[in-house]
Specification:
The chain is mainly alpha-helical. It has helices spanning 3-8, 13-23, 41-51, 57-83, 90-93, 99-110, 114-126, 168-179, 187-200, 217-222, 239-253, 256-271, 273-276, 288-301, 308-326, 338-350, and strands spanning 130-132, 135-137, 158-160, 203-205, 208-210, 214-216. Keywords: Metal-binding, Zinc.
């Protein structure tokens, strides 16, 4: 994403335009099965809107028409699936590939719109329980494993808690829209259903609170987490992303107790050397950059005594040290590559929210 450097004065618009030309040089997919926030037409539209440049109004209008068509197609299929009382696949609703991501792009680009409200209405319907094989399951329970597996541990499907691929993504979008005054019938109840389910899987350890990223059918039935300890503290599946989604939900519902619980969970995470040691790269998705930037966003909305603001300088130093020791990611992209890491470093330098609001695509922007 070339815009932050140009808009902050440390890069050039000429360079940014060259990257835009490269981005649009080949065909850009608008196929409903392929296009999503991080791929195809919605991805290009998000990037151009983040530029804040008047010169791209005409292509934006064309992209908007394609996005409307593919969104309506995906919504129709999702509602038909619910009508059949079938379980979903992750890519129907998640942030990376699904309707949560498309809704996030709509919110970023237009604010309130009829199409966004349709996405929110679908997400509310997604949260309603569904009966399957004798079990009453959350409506977002996926019929396969996280990578499409149907055997072994994932024979009964899975419940995904993560921000990137799980129910924390819809939670963050529903909450962010509500905080901006964009509501549809049942929105507060849907937020409550998701947060109640996440609270059910909250694990208390000696060093703090954590959540598993995935729940198997056996764990759902026994209400027992088989994972022995916290996973890596990542944006995508770990405590940082889960804590931010729950903080946003608490802010939307004016629930001070839940807000403090979410903030304390992240504060405990960043103090836990055992969890920090699980980070093995500098990326936004599952590395140091994602932890640092998520912590910065949570701290900006946190209660004064959460301890997160005081932790930020140390986290910034840890990211710089990691990059000095091991270098930037080999990939060039936003989620797993150098672009994302550099955007986080730019936010560190300015110590302000990103002027382009690029992190709206991560559902970190409040």
């Amino acid at each position: 994403m070339p815009w932050p450097g140009a808009r902050s004065g440390i890069g050039s618009w000429d360079s940014a335009r060259q990257w835009v030309a490269a981005m649009a040089r080949g065909p850009v997919t608008a196929k409903p099965d392929a296009a999503a926030l991080f791929r195809g037409v919605p991805a290009v539209a998000f990037t151009l809107h983040a530029a804040g440049h008047d010169g791209y109004a005409a292509p934006q209008s064309i992209l908007d028409r394609h996005i409307a068509t593919l969104t309506r197609h995906r919504l129709a299929r999702a509602h038909e699936r619910i009508d059949r009382a079938e379980l979903p696949l992750v890519r129907e609703f998640d942030l990376i590939s699904g309707l949560t991501g498309i809704g996030t792009g709509l919110l970023h680009r237009h604010g309130r719109s009829d199409l966004l409200e349709q996405v929110l209405t679908y997400l509310i319907r997604l949260t309603k329980p569904i009966r399957h094989d004798g079990d009453l399951l959350p409506g977002w329970w996926c019929r396969t494993g996280p990578r499409g597996q149907t055997a072994s541990r994932w024979r009964g499907g899975h419940g995904n808690l993560g921000l990137a691929h799980g129910i924390s993504g819809p939670l963050a979008l529903l909450a962010t829209a509500m905080r901006r005054g964009i509501t549809v019938a049942g929105q507060a109840d849907a937020i409550e259903r998701i947060t109640t389910w996440l609270h059910r899987w909250r694990c208390d350890a000696g060093t703090g609170v954590w959540w598993p990223g995935l729940i198997s059918r056996g764990e759902q039935r026994s209400t027992t987490v088989h994972q022995s300890g916290p996973q890596r503290p990542s944006w995508c599946y770990g405590t940082p992303g889960l804590a931010r989604a729950q903080q946003l939900a608490a802010l939307a519902l004016a629930d001070a107790r839940r807000q403090r619980t979410a903030e304390d969970a992240l504060a405990g995470c960043v103090r836990d050397e055992g969890q920090l040691a699980l980070l093995r790269d500098a990326s936004v998705c599952h590395g140091w950059a994602g932890l640092v930037h998520t912590a910065r966003r949570v701290a900006a909305d946190a209660t004064e005594d959460s301890g997160l603001l005081q932790a930020l300088p140390g986290l910034d130093a840890r990211l710089r040290d990691y990059l000095h020791r091991y270098g930037p990611p080999a990939d060039s992209g936003l989620l797993e590559g150098r672009a994302g890491t550099r955007l986080v470093q730019l936010a560190q330098t300015t110590n302000t929210a990103p002027i382009t609001r690029w992190d709206a695509c991560l559902l970190l922007e409040g």
